[in-house]
TrEMBL record:
Encoding gene per record: prnD_1
Chain ranges of the Rieske domain: 1-98
Database matches in PANTHER family: 3-KETOSTEROID-9-ALPHA-MONOOXYGENASE, OXYGENASE COMPONENT (PTHR21266:SF60), IRON-SULFUR DOMAIN CONTAINING PROTEIN (PTHR21266)
Record flagged with keyword Transport: no
Single GO term (MF): oxidoreductase activity
Record protein name field: Aminopyrrolnitrin oxygenase PrnD
A Pfam family: Rieske
Record keywords: 2Fe-2S, Iron, Iron-sulfur, Metal-binding, Oxidoreductase
Length: 317
């Protein structure tokens, strides 16, 4: 969502937040709950860099401190306890990054080469678990069926038919890379420009890159908003480098809607039995690998010790 002069409601994991800009334009993130009677601050307005509650007009600065209570007479002070919890946040590469963890915020996860490209930016809410949405973007075998006429792989198979090929996965310090065609040997470096490259970075970022006929790229974050819901925040490169560097798109691209329909349709089955029904084949390795990465990182085993560093998978597609 866009962040301009009005407060914006944002959910990250199970934190409901209001995000707004202070008088200097810096982003601020507070719990979306007025300390007076609990009204959501996100339906209020921003006044001189402070967010004003729309119930009785209490105002909070970027640190969550209450700086104005309209009903107080002159001789009364604002009670110290009238604060709202705040979250550290910073702005970079077209996004506001909010820290919900303990201790010092982690370094900002930069998007490599962001400033040298032109982007379309958008957001889609999805009623499926974040990990399911990550997986589908690393799933080599779905575009032909799921993305009729919206994905290069769908066109290729429709024109040339199915063929046998291989993709390669590599474990990295922050997740994994999948690319095709594979390298010849275990110690060959990852090619700078393979045909297709899919990158997963913990905890929720997937980048999709095609290098031919020219370099296109989409960077997607699947922000969890609950156990069975997430929000896709994406930027994708524009072919023509003209106009604004970042253009907002409010209509969901068909390609994303195709994935979302499948994921939302399947989610209730995962909710019911946790995915016990699932069966997989060798070609699904990339999905299995991303799950193992998430599982190991969540249990504190990072970098992982048991994941194969490199694997080449035979696949028909
Ligand atoms: S509930 Fe927010 S000012 Fe009263
Ligand atoms: Fe897809």
């Amino acid at each position: 969502m866009k962040l301009r002069g009005s407060p914006v409601k944002v959910k990250v994991l199970d934190h409901d937040m209001v995000v707004f800009r202070d008088a200097r334009g810096r982003p601020s993130a507070l719990l979306d709950r007025c300390s007076h009677r609990g009204a959501p601050l996100s339906i209020g307005r921003v006044v001189r860099g402070a967010v004003e509650c729309s119930y009785h007009g209490w105002r909070y600065d970027r640190s969550g401190e209450c700086i104005h209570i309209p009903s107080l007479t002159k001789e009364r002070r604002i009670p110290k306890s009238c604060t709202v919890p705040s979250f550290p946040c910073a702005e970079n590469d077209g996004y506001v990054w909010v820290w919900t963890g303990e201790g010092e915020p982690a370094p900002l996860p930069a998007i490599a080469g962001f400033s040298s490209r032109y982007w379309v930016q958008g957001m889609v809410e999805a009623q499926c678990a974040s990990l399911r949405a990550v997986e589908i973007n690393l799933d080599w075998c779905h575009p032909y069926f799921a993305h009729r006429w919206t994905h290069p792989q769908s066109y290729r198979i429709r024109v040339k038919g199915f063929s046998e090929g291989r993709y390669e996965t590599r474990a990295t310090s922050s997740g994994m890379i999948l690319f095709a065609p594979p390298t010849k040997t275990d110690d060959a470096p990852v090619p700078a420009e393979p045909g297709i490259k899919l990158t997963y970075e913990l905890p929720d970022r997937v980048s999709v890159e095609f290098f031919r006929p020219y370099h296109t790229r989409a960077v997607m974050h699947f922000v969890p908003t609950g156990p069975s819901s997430c929000r896709l925040e994406y930027v994708r490169t524009r072919s023509l480098p003209i106009g604004r560097r970042i253009r907002w798109e409010s209509r969901e691209p068909l390609l994303f809607a195709q994935d979302r329909t499948l994921l939302e349709g399947g989610q209730p089955w995962y909710d019911r039995d946790g995915g016990q029904f699932e069966r997989s084949v060798e070609a699904d390795w990339s999905t299995i690998m991303v799950r193992q990465i998430v599982e190991q990182a969540a249990s504190g085993q990072w970098p992982p010790t048991e994941l194969p560093r490199r694997r080449v998978i035979s696949v028909r597609g």
